Amino acid sequence: MGESGLVRLRDLLAGKRELLISYSGGLDSSFLASVARDVLGDRLICVMLDSRLVPRSELAMAEKRAQEMGIAYQVISVDPLSSPEFCASPANRCYLCKKIMCRALREEAARLGIEYVADGLNSSDFCDYRPGIHASEEERIWHPLVEAGMSKGDIRTAARDLGMEFWDQPASACLASRIPYSEPITAEGLARVEASEDFLRSIGFSGFRVRAHGSLARIEVSKDQMHHILENGQEVVEGLRRVGFSYVTLDLAGYRTGSMNEVLRDGVPGDWHASPRGAPQRR
Question: Are 255 and 249 in contact (CB under 8 A)?
Fold first, then answer.
């Protein structure tokens, strides 16, 4: 897609009088916010949705980046844990959470008198189980990167070509993605995962996840880092036990995004591949 996708994106943004962007500080929403700032100027506002699903380090990084980019932003607190249905962690938990988030964005847009609310969804996001996409569609969230035909690879290339320092930022996901389906999502469990990942980051690891199976921590790291985990095994075990885990394991399959979805491959709802007009569909 390359340059044509970026040109298309700018044209789409230029057609909006004002825009509210759901901003997380991740690659996709940061790229969209940066391009929208250049097109819309002060007719753009970014909104960060803060909850116990968001690591404190990511929130701080997102705020710092918005300030560095000179983008108007605000932080709104939401509480998905107030929903018993979400906390039960069903297979459609992403839908339930996204519904809460999108409604918060819509309410803030209405308060500000802004018609269009956009997010950083891109065409590559349709390659995994993403029921939250349905919720965003129901709440009329606009996906300009999808409409511009841009994939994750296109975004990285365009961001690099535009000199955006975050062009190679790794993927991130909410803390609930570390909890298995059907296991309750609690504030304590989320905090334990966050503390575990903060600890591993503090001793030099990157590109990993700590998946919480009750009192057992399953560490996913890239295969080239596995020997480092084993070499520092005692320190890793002690660190994760300090934050509340009883058992610490290493996943030999290595780090991969969305690994909790692997148990759903044969049992996901039949329409999970549904997508906005013009986007690819997973069949």
Answer: no
12-57 confidence digits (pLDDT tens): 999 999 999 999 999 999 999 999 999 999 999 999 999 999 999 9
* Domains within the chain, CATH numbers bracketed: 2-161 (3.40.50.620), 175-263 (3.30.70)
Model pTM score: 0.90
Tokens standing for 255?
């780090």
pLDDT in tens, 210-229: 999 999 999 999 999 999 99
* Region for 48 from its dihedrals, namely left if φ exceeds 0, alpha if ψ lies in -120 to 50, beta otherwise: beta
What are the phi and psi torsion angles at 116 (to 5°)?
A: -100, 130
Going from the C-alpha of 194 to that of each of 76, 96, 224, the distances in angstroms are 20, 22, 23
Count CB atoms within 10 A of the CB of residue 212.
Answer: 21
Q: How many whole angstroms separate alpha carbon 244 and alpha carbon 186?
A: 14
Among residues 161, 165, 163, 141, which one has the least CA distance to residue 153? 161
The helix/strand/coil state of 34 is: helix
Phi, psi of 102 (to 5 degrees): -65, -35
CB 37 within 8 A of CB 9: no
Q: Are 240 and 233 in contact (CB under 8 A)?
A: no
Q: Which residues contact 267 (CB under 8 A, 6 or more apart)?
A: 91
Residue type, 162: L
Q: Are strands 208-213 and 216-221 parallel, antiparallel or unpaired?
A: antiparallel
